[in-house]
Design brief:
single chain, alpha/beta, Oxidized Rhodanese, domain 1, 5-stranded parallel β-sheet, 39% helix
Length: 249
């Protein structure tokens, strides 16, 4: 009888130990899972970008497609001169407009201003809102960028403006065969190499609003620059060409 009691006590001890080890294992597994989740949800950090690095990206027709560059200065400062493919989202209204760049949360977003202070503040806002690859670049007062005065817009904004009738003239800077396949209503086809021979198609009023697009935003930026040199003051270039955005034609 005593032997049986000892046997039962030993078995109970084994069961208790097994349960304890199982619980311990589960706790360790839970801790490991929590650590992994915490690591995955760790807040991204704003990275600094030198002016020469940003200038190099903007000059590379392929590389620039991987970045969204945002000028957070006022619209007045932006219009006086800004980096070629930069859109304007002033710091004062940035959070109200932020939803339009939600699709860039996992893409490279570069911010700049005059000194890096305002762009740094906006960079922190983006990180807090889930953007994972945010860069604060040298300001226009710290680095001598090649600046332009025509406006740059994302595809959706460009498309909406045209459909809302804001463009006096739309220029399609793609190849003739692409132009013939489909384009905006009443758009004309002018590529950079043909600009001089097509000046007669441009409006006489230099205040006319002219919208330009192409396949990737590169050729249209060349035409936009030519238009500004001709004295046109309201020129808009689509940084999203028909390759990046579906304009519906």
């Amino acid at each position: 009888m005593k032997l049986k009691k000892t046997k039962y006590a030993f078995m109970a001890l084994l069961i208790a130990s097994s349960i304890g080890l199982s619980a311990c294992g589960q706790n360790e597994e839970a801790k490991d899972t929590a650590k992994t989740e915490q690591s995955e949800t760790k807040t991204a950090e704003v990275q600094a970008m030198k002016g020469d690095e940003l200038a190099k990206i903007e000059a590379d027709k392929k590389e620039k497609e991987n970045y969204l560059v945002i000028d957070v200065r006022s619209s007045e400062e932006y219009n006086e001169g800004h980096i070629k493919f930069a859109i304007n989202m002033p710091i004062d209204t940035f959070e109200k407009e932020m939803s339009k760049i939600d699709s860039f949360k996992d893409k490279d977003v570069v911010l700049y201003c005059n000194s890096g202070k305002k762009s740094g503040q906006v960079a922190d806002i983006l990180v807090k809102n889930g953007f994972t690859k945010v860069y604060n670049a040298d300001g226009v007062k710290d680095f001598k960028y090649d600046l332009v005065t025509y406006e740059s817009k994302l595809g959706p904004d460009f498309d909406k403006d045209i459909k809302d009738g804001k463009a006096k003239l739309v220029i399609d800077a793609r190849k003739a065969e692409d132009f013939k396949k489909g384009t905006f209503d009443k758009a004309i086809n002018i590529m950079p190499d043909d600009f001089e021979s097509n000046k007669d198609k441009l409006p006489e009023d230099k205040e006319s609003t002219i919208y330009v697009f192409c396949y990737t935003g590169n050729k249209s930026s060349e035409v936009a620059q030519m238009l500004t040199k001709e004295g046109y003051k309201n020129v808009v270039n689509a940084i999203d060409g028909s390759k990046e955005y579906d304009y519906g034609f």
